[in-house]
Amino acid sequence: MSSAAETIDLTLMGEATLAPTGQTQSIERLPVVTPSGQIVPAGALSQIVITAGPTEIRHRERLRTITLEVRPANDLPLEAALELLEAEVLAPLEEEGLPPGVRVSLSGTADELTATWNAIQLNLLFALIVVFLGVPSSTRSSFSRSIC
Predict the structure, then answer these.
(1) Per-residue pLDDT tens for 88-108?
(2) Rounded Cα distance, 49 and 2, in Å
(3) Which helix (H) or strand (E) holds 88?
(4) pTM for the complete prediction?
(5) Are 27 and 48 in contact (CB under 8 A)?
(6) Sign of CA dihedral 51, 52, 57, 60
(7) Cα separation, 26 vs 117, whole angstroms
(8) Which of 59, 111, 102 is CA-nearest to residue 82?
(9) Where are the beta strands (DSSP E) in 12-106?
(10) pLDDT in tens, 26-42
């Protein structure tokens, strides 16, 4: 048995004719079969809270989106948080297989971190090219002066 602080997501599925009135307010009266075979109302197993749904449907690149805002702890670096999300959340989702048309991506500060890292790599490569092209030309000119 789980503790009172622990919560799980529960999906109730069944024939539409089994719903007492077809209204969301009657969800707590839906019959649920327990592992022991007893039939009890859903309200006896859990606290049912009716809340409002989204007030708007967001779109990104003309596709419907769901935004989850993740704020890592202050002592967890953003790069470590990204690696944790990719390993613990995104990888298992992709392994299980996403439904057709569903894409998962990280954006916001995560995008900024990736863009900054890519820019640093490009700038470092450019700097190395300039140094390696400049060093031979500077040594050749000083070498030719010392011979003459």
Answers:
(1) 988 888 888 888 878 887 777
(2) 19
(3) none
(4) 0.38
(5) yes
(6) negative
(7) 53
(8) 111
(9) 31-33, 39-41, 58-60, 63-65
(10) 778 878 888 899 999 88
